[in-house]
Amino acid sequence: MEILTTGEMEQADRLAIAAGAPGFALMLHAGQAVADAATDLAGQGPILVAAGCGNNGGDGFVAATELAARGHDVSVILLCGRDSLKGDAALAAKGWKGRVLPCDLSALGSPALIIDALFGAGLNRPVTGDPQAMIEAINANGAPVLSVDLPSGINGTTGAIMGVAVRATETVTFFRKKPAHLLLPGRIHCGRVRVADIGISDVVLDKIRPATFENIPDYWQGAFPVPRIDGHKYARGHAVIVSGDLTSTGAARLSARGALRAGAGLVSVLSPDDALGANTASLTAVMVRRMNGAAGFAEILTDRRLNACVIGPGAGVGEETRALVLTALAAKPALVLDADALTSFADLPARLFEAIKETGNTDIILTPHEGEFRRLFSEMSNKHPLRSKLERVRAAAGRSGAIVLLKGPDTVVASPDGRATIAANAPPWLATAGSGDVLSGMIGGLLAQGVPAFDAACIGVWMHGEAGHEAGPGLIAEDLPEVLPAVLRRLYDRFGIDY
Ligand SMILES: NC(=O)C1=CN([C@@H]2O[C@H](COP(=O)(O)OP(=O)(O)OC[C@H]3O[C@@H](n4cnc5c(N)ncnc54)[C@H](O)[C@@H]3O)[C@@H](O)[C@H]2O)[C@@H](O)CC1
Ligand SMILES: [K+]
């Protein structure tokens, strides 16, 4: 499902209006959708609408009018004088026949529900003064809160808190989600998110051409790999995972098991001499192969059947790992660079990015967590400290020439071609030692099956999040590959694939 910035949403409104949908009709639909959600939340109790002076407040007036018509006890507090309302908001306020209370915090009372219609997409500066006091009072009131379009104080495009922001129980937004409904901290302030149809036709998207999508199966269903009945394991690729030395081999083994469970036909751990014993003793379905430094690695990769490679988990930081990465880039298998493979280039990011661009290989994925990202893209992060996660990852993809996957509760995947996805399905207990190693392996396993890199990254992230739910609280990284069959089974059911 597409995600629209507030600018793109404005364009959607304009295109819908130009195609014959009156702006006020859109507001009426929006207000009705808010009223529907409010009825579910408030039951029969009194409802307070806190309205701002723009069209978000207009939606609030429409909802108030609708709810009063349905027999609810509704009152409205307005941030400004009624006379200063303009356009559709003024029209909406005219329809409200009840009292409008001045912006007095004591008027909040003890409603069964507060509808937050202070600011939506038009928030364009930090919240201070009366609106700030109002938002703080709403948060302190204790009543459930239904936010209109966005929790007031949240920037719709970045998800940032502009000084202070409403913490909603539920948010009703219109036509499509905005980045703030998925990116933190915005997502936390939204509560549940409902997307309401307000009469804007999907046709407007042909003109807007949004490049950001929610990372859900509908988005990548077409790229999801399904083993063929007449296929064999060699048709599902051979992923290789580079092991660290004797003191750090576990990460590569976790990664390898992730690759195998994600469906790679064959998986090999490439092991330095000193770690051969440890690796062979702890692996069965995953194969182990001796690898002597970068020269040995280059020789192994001349076998083109080894079509996907993961470097980073437990690899160690320094020149040796840098040499392995540059060797893999030159050999051009589909490639996941994770953890130490990224940190090894913290002082020389340009060398990595140039090597990536020189290969012309578009199947390269960098999978940093926030710390690794800051180290690798420090120049860019320092220059633009206020960019949202989405903007930062997009810029990093452009700068590096690779697909960049920035991990977190709102994992963003961005491609140098501009596409990006945001995932919102990761449970908090997924942030545990070794979890990222499994993720990089899963993506390697998908690459081995021939899934294009951007899709492989998105599918890997989503399945990893689902595996987190499947394993539940208390999970450790070892659990993640083991619950993948359950996740895959549900996906097969959802896609109607026989098995
Ligand atoms: N454009 C449309 O056709 C539609 C818009 N809709 C609603 O309209 C909203 C957007 O309306 P607007 O563009 O009027 O914007 P808002 O209603 O979100 O806010 C704009 C008003 O708030 C003021 N403002 C912004 N930041 C402030 C701050 N920090 N402190 C104090 N005042 C501040 C602005 O000066 C302006 O008066 C959407 O979020 C949605 O709720 C819906 O009615 C659907 C249709
Ligand atoms: K709002």
Automatic annotation (TrEMBL):
(6S)-NADPHX binds at residues 55-59, 120-126, 149, 251, 314, 369, 437. AMP binds at K407, G408, P409, D410, T411, G436. Binds 1 potassium ion per subunit. K(+) binds at N56, D116, S152. Gene3D superfamilies: 3.40.1190.20, YjeF N-terminal domain. It holds the Pfam family YjeF_N. GO terms for molecular function: ADP-dependent NAD(P)H-hydrate dehydratase activity; ATP binding; metal ion binding; NAD(P)HX epimerase activity. Its EC number is 4.2.1.136, 5.1.99.6. PROSITE patterns: YJEF_C_2, YJEF_C_3, YJEF_N. Residues 216-491 form the YjeF C-terminal domain. InterPro entries: Carbohydrate_kinase_pred_CS, CARKD, Nnr, Ribokinase-like, YjeF_N_dom, YjeF_N_dom_sf. One of its GO terms (biological process) is metabolite repair. Homotetramer. In the C-terminal section; belongs to the NnrD/CARKD family. Catalyzes the epimerization of the S- and R-forms of NAD(P)HX, a damaged form of NAD(P)H that is a result of enzymatic or heat-dependent hydration. This is a prerequisite for the S-specific NAD(P)H-hydrate dehydratase to allow the repair of both epimers of NAD(P)HX. Bifunctional enzyme that catalyzes the epimerization of the S- and R-forms of NAD(P)HX and the dehydration of the S-form of NAD(P)HX at the expense of ADP, which is converted to AMP. This allows the repair of both epimers of NAD(P)HX, a damaged form of NAD(P)H that is a result of enzymatic or heat-dependent hydration. This is Bifunctional NAD(P)H-hydrate repair enzyme. It comes from Nitrobacter hamburgensis (strain DSM 10229 / NCIMB 13809 / X14). The lineage of its organism: Bacteria, Pseudomonadati, Pseudomonadota, Alphaproteobacteria, Hyphomicrobiales. The gene is nnrE.
